[in-house]
């Protein structure tokens, strides 16, 4: 019988129906690998459940008790974040009349080169420096 990991976890946690539990128990008697998987999961469950068991037995600190009961508790604040402006209004503010020709604009600057051109230039420069740095 093939038992999935989910079924093994449910078996260890006791979450399977009784007929499925009986089938897996019978399969464990025939398959030692399955029995080892289930035992490993039981050991892991025992280890994890015991890791913080002491914390659950500790008394609740007084500061948390007063906050839970409401004595001196501060009411929650709702923070209202500003909503983004509609795109139509933002576009209207950005619209500027452009001159007919680029040379007519004072302080006209060239467009930036595309990102791939900058990456290619870096690659060529890196190859050149690497070639010069290596001894002949």
Question: Which secondary structure elements does this structure contain, and how are they paired or packed?
Answer:
Elements: H1 5-13, H2 18-30, H3 32-51, H4 53-57, H5 62-69, H6 87-94, H7 115-133
Helix pairs in contact: 1-3, 2-3
Essential attributes:
7 helices; 136 residues; mainly alpha; 60% helix
Describe the protein.
The protein is an all-alpha fold. It has a domain of 50 residues. The protein contains seven helices and no strands. Helix 1 packs across helix 3 and helix 2 crosses helix 3. The longest helix is centred in the first third of the chain and has 20 residues. The protein is extended. 3% of the residues are buried.
Number of helices: 7
Largest sheet: none
First-last Cα distance: 67 Å
Low-confidence runs: none
- The chain-level mean pLDDT equals 80
Q: How many strands appear in the DSSP assignment?
A: 0
Topology as a string of helices (H) and strands (E):
HHHHHHH
Radius of gyration, CA atoms, in whole angstroms: 35 Å
Helical percentage: 55-70%
Proportion of strand residues: under 5%
Which structural class do you get from the secondary structure elements? mainly alpha
Shape: extended
Briefly say what this structure is.
With 136 residues, this protein is an all-alpha fold.
